[in-house]
User: Fold this.
Amino acid sequence: MTPGKAYLTSEEIRSLSARSDLWGAWLVTHAWGVILGALALFAVWPNALTFLLAVILIGSRQLGLAILMHEAAHNALFKTKSVNEWAGEWLCGRPIVADLPEYRHYHLTHHRHTQTEKDPDLRLSKPFPTTRASLMRKFLRDITGQTGLKQRAQQIMFAFKMAGEVEGSPSSQDLAQAFSGPVIGRAIIANVVIFALFWAVSGLWWAWLAFWLLPLLTWFQLVLRIRNIAEHGAVEFSNDPFRNTRTTLANPIERALVAPYWVNYHLEHHLVMHIPAHNLPKLHRLMIEKGHGEKMTTAPNYLSVLARASSKPA
Assistant:
């Protein structure tokens, strides 16, 4: 369960694994601060550019909330367990219509069986590399809301126990949303609060529709797919922790828009999954210092990952 034990001492793992309530509070505050700041920017200077910027920034921070829920699923967001569970559910998961307990169960299965036939995320990675045309079609479905609408329809049907899985939706796989009526109800409660908060901040009754629902159905789906491809797309189908996942050395713009909160250090996360995200760069440097850099699957940026993922001849 912890491949990193073969390469790290117990003291190194213990030092890197220290949780912090202050770090957790800062990360959650940062995510919501960017969201509300982007909304306020449009409210002060309403124009097409600030509208587009707000949609992109908020959609990227919705991915940030999914990543922080992922942190909470590993009990790494807050040191205090009760705060970790509450914040992971109400401040991170339920606003984006995700369920922390269901996600935790699903995601730990992914860690146990990474890139094997038992990996529930295998359908996300197995199609890659694909053709450039195929990848562009996927991106078009994401950015036009088709993927997001399919996922939301699936969630509603799950709530009434009427349907199964929506094939081809990255978030339906990654967020592992086997929903029931109560789960949908909690997500509605969270979004009613967001509706009121957005109205209060912007003075616009339609702010939730334009700056929460629209990003959730479009930009969030796009960057979620890119994140999924970068983590396990076009890598080896094996048990080798250096070859069955990838770390992407993101630049500042990529970190802001595609890879918030150190999610790009995915190989390191798989080595020791309970290390808090802010310590993953330290683990990356430590692995290089120990001489493992040549064995690790890395990419210099997300564009190079997408080029590799779309390298199949037409």
In short: The chain has one domain: 3-119+149-309.
